[in-house]
Amino acid sequence: MDIRHQLLHAVYTLAQRQAIKDMTVNDILAEAEVSRGSFYKYFADKYDVVNSYYEEAMTEIFKDCDAFTWQGIFTKMTTYLEKHRVFFRAAFQNEGQNAFTQFFRDYLNQKFAAIITTHSSHQALSTDERKAVRFFVDGFVTYTRQWILSDTPQSATDLGYELHLFMPEILCRIRLDLPVTTPTF
């Protein structure tokens, strides 16, 4: 594992033992067993490495999602979050700087709009469609956050299905040119 990934893995590991807001660069260095100079070669500060971990997680979640339906995308996402529930519980509890909730909301707003414009005849979203994406993402993030923070016995597959059911009609009417497959995990 290269040094950058050692540092990202250290954030993941530490978040399972302590609050993200309480992590320090020294904690990350000790967990990763790398020098301070190596840390600053890749990251400006602890906020930068934490945000980089969030971005890596989203990249992993959305990898190969072009082959899935909306429900498949939502199920893949909730399955990933469930598999890493301890980390994402810490991430969702973190407020203020490095708040995953806001990062997740911003990321999904951009990603869902990009999926629509990339995989449909839409060149751009209408004002109402942009509002619907924001509205849906706000509910999606809130509902998913509550699911992660509680010990709800609901499966990731069931949650993915429900999130798809809650998708606004204006967005459901947009035909995506995605193959009709469901991910296997």
From TrEMBL:
Residues 24-43 bind DNA. Keywords: DNA-binding. InterPro entries: Homeodomain-like_sf (IPR009057), HTH-type_Tx_Regulator (IPR050624), HTH_TetR (IPR001647), TetR_C_Firmicutes (IPR039532). Gene3D superfamilies: Tetracycline Repressor, domain 2. Pfam families: TetR_C_8 (PF14278), TetR_N (PF00440). It comes from the Bacteria. Residues 1-61 form the HTH tetR-type domain. This is TetR/AcrR family transcriptional regulator.
